[in-house]
Every structure is written in structure tokens, then in C-alpha cells.
């Protein structure tokens, strides 16, 4: 199976996915697509030898360029890893049930537009939460509201800073995201 990973930032999850799938023969990350020209994820793709493509808002929402690229590349699955835009309806329709996202919190809490990265961990700490974690879910037309696939939790100590929480959450992402994606691909 062929996976396209969509990114907007550092790409540590994208790198983890590339390396995980290279160990087996179930699937491959065939392309990494970024909506940010300066995303470090594009540097990672270069270093990993994974084809990558930068696209802008016009490409994504006002053209069929990305969908055509996905079809040309015979992509079967789309994985969002730190991707911060809503997926346009033509791609949602073409890949219904085959687009997966990871969110660094226990949805439905701390989700929705604008809740990403350190903002999530700051809110969790400010609200004195006792735990946080990751949510892996299918993607639909609204931020962070698709069908739930998997959640993993970690405790938040009163002495934890948002950076310490981020570190614990990233650890959960690296441990679980590739395995969960592999599981749902294998089940289809
Ligand atoms: C991760 O925290 C992920 O849960 C969220 O965005 C962040 C992406 O980090 N969706 P990276 O770009 O994979 O390093």
C-alpha cells in the first residue's frame, strides 16, 4: 500500500512513519506533501530519500493538482502528521475512510481549529489536567471530529511544564502512530 503524509511543521512523525514502514512490506510512505515551504519536514524527506512536494493554498483548495498527484502516485492512504489545514472536499470524497490524523490531546477536549502544537499543551497545563495523550482519528470536513480510532494517555504532574508534557505526548506519538496506521491498513 502507498501512503502520502501531509505535514506543516517539523515532520518528526512523518520521519517515524517512513522508518517504521521501511522495516516491513505492508506499506510505504511514498510521498510527503507540505503546505509550508520552510517546513523542516521537507528537509527530513530529502534526507530520507522520500519524494516531497510543497503546495500552497491555491493548489490545495482551488485546483485538482493535489488530488491528481495522489492519483498519479497511486496513493491508497493519506496520513496527516502535524498538518494544520482542513482537507478539501474533493480529496475527502476520493479518500473517504482512508485519511487518518493524529492530535496531541485526548479529543474531544483540546481540539478544533487553532488548537495545535504547544497551544494544546499550554492549555492542558493551565487547566490543571491530570492526564493528556494522543488521539488518532479518521478525518472528515471538520477539525478533529472524525471517527475515533485510538487513544493513549500519559499523566500530567502539577510540576510539569508544557514542554515536559509535549515530550511525553511526542513519545506516545512515536510509539503508537505507525502501529495504529499499519493496523488499519492491514484490516482493510
Ligand atoms: C504532533 O504533536 C502531532 O500530534 C500534531 O502535530 C505535531 C506534529 O509534530 N498533529 P511533527 O511535525 O510530526 O514533529
From TrEMBL:
Coiled coil region boundaries = none
Q: Which residues bind (6R)-10-formyltetrahydrofolate?
A: 101
Instruction: List, alphabetically, the GO terms of the cellular component aspect.
Output: cytosol
Annotated positions for site Raises pKa of active site His: 144
- Which pathway does the database say it acts in? Purine metabolism; IMP biosynthesis via de novo pathway; N(2)-formyl-N(1)-(5-phospho-D-ribosyl)glycinamide from N(1)-(5-phospho-D-ribosyl)glycinamide (10-formyl THF route): step 1/1
What is the catalytic activity of this protein? N(1)-(5-phospho-beta-D-ribosyl)glycinamide + (6R)-10-formyltetrahydrofolate = N(2)-formyl-N(1)-(5-phospho-beta-D-ribosyl)glycinamide + (6S)-5,6,7,8-tetrahydrofolate + H(+)
Where the record annotates domain Formyl transferase N-terminal, the positions are 1-181
Gene Ontology molecular function: phosphoribosylglycinamide formyltransferase activity
Q: Where does the record place the catalytic residues? A: 103 (proton donor)
**Protein keywords:** Membrane, Purine biosynthesis, Transferase, Transmembrane, Transmembrane helix
What is any one GO biological process for this UniProt entry? 'de novo' IMP biosynthetic process
Report the superkingdom from the record: Bacteria
- Give residues annotated as binding N(1)-(5-phospho-beta-D-ribosyl)glycinamide: 11-13
Query: What EC number is given for this enzyme?
Result: 2.1.2.2
> Which family does the similarity line name?
Belongs to the GART family.
UniProt function note: Catalyzes the transfer of a formyl group from 10-formyltetrahydrofolate to 5-phospho-ribosyl-glycinamide (GAR), producing 5-phospho-ribosyl-N-formylglycinamide (FGAR) and tetrahydrofolate.
Q: What is this protein called?
A: Phosphoribosylglycinamide formyltransferase
- Species for this entry: Acetobacteroides hydrogenigenes
Please give the first and last residues shown and the length of the full protein: 35 to 222 of 222
